[in-house]
Fold this protein.
Amino acid sequence: MKTHLNVKAPSNILSGLFEEKKWISSKFLYDEQGSQLFEQITDLPEYYQTRTEARILLENLSTWKSVFHEPSALIELGSGSSKKTKILLDHVKNIESYIPIDISEEFLADTVTQLQTSYPEIHIQGVSADYTQPFTLPDLKGKKKVIFFPGSTIGNFEPGEAERFLGNIRSLLEPGDELILGVDRKKDETVIEAAYDDAAGVTAAFNKNLITRINREHEASIDVESFSHVALYNSSAGRIEMHLESVRDQVLSVGGHTIEVKKQERIHTENSYKYDPEDIIQLGRSSGFLLQRVVSDEREYFSVCLMEVV
Ligand code: AVJ
């Protein structure tokens, strides 16, 4: 997985460090090392999301079969390695075209080549784009369009951004088209906090990799161990937050500037919003979609939402 973009993104990894409340956009988590660490996160025992979503997809095949009851094009936002998509491609007929959209051109080209070999009868056409910015779809010749946005990536958007983003996606669609959206649900905060602060320390390494990235890209030498990983569920906002907390008073020298950081001061590095079905109904209302169906695991940790264009 490569694209997890926050729309409230400064162009520069450093710019938020000069603000009163220091922050770094979560989009900077995904350099090469960070993308590898995220892949490891998806296999952690505490990180239930990825395996739960895959299981929901696999256990509700009749739902997806009825979505694709006519010749269709499957359009995936932030396709990465298209792991979850294979569940749909393997079991559902009528997917005549698959359009993976990903920001990483190289990665996308490899994925398309591999998939085309495995699925010779499906027309696969990659679009290399930042899907949070306006983009156009190839001509899909009147086929039903189904947008697939799995992985609870929507959680990285601020709520207003999520509305605007889905509103833009809606403008690419026509009545009859649909959206399949994967979201992580609100739940006991100890479960959520453990998922973002695993015992093996992989999520801590993922967060601290931001410091390594600053050191590499801005010839800095910040001590990575001078920050500790903090993951906190903010229940009033319905989101888990990641922070880097300074273990001491320090002055960072980066990009020809100095930045004072106090002991216990935090740099906010990620928000990941959690959505219950009522939140999804609301999000759909303000972006032109009607929630049709919610499929969840038995613990109701994760939901895959089927939304139709209105
Ligand atoms: C890729 C945004 C879905 O929020 O769960 C994982 C990123 N951050 N562990 C998430 C993430 C810390 C992930 N998303």
Observations:
- Residues 27 and 75 are 22 Å apart (CA to CA).
- The two ends are 30 Å apart (CA to CA).
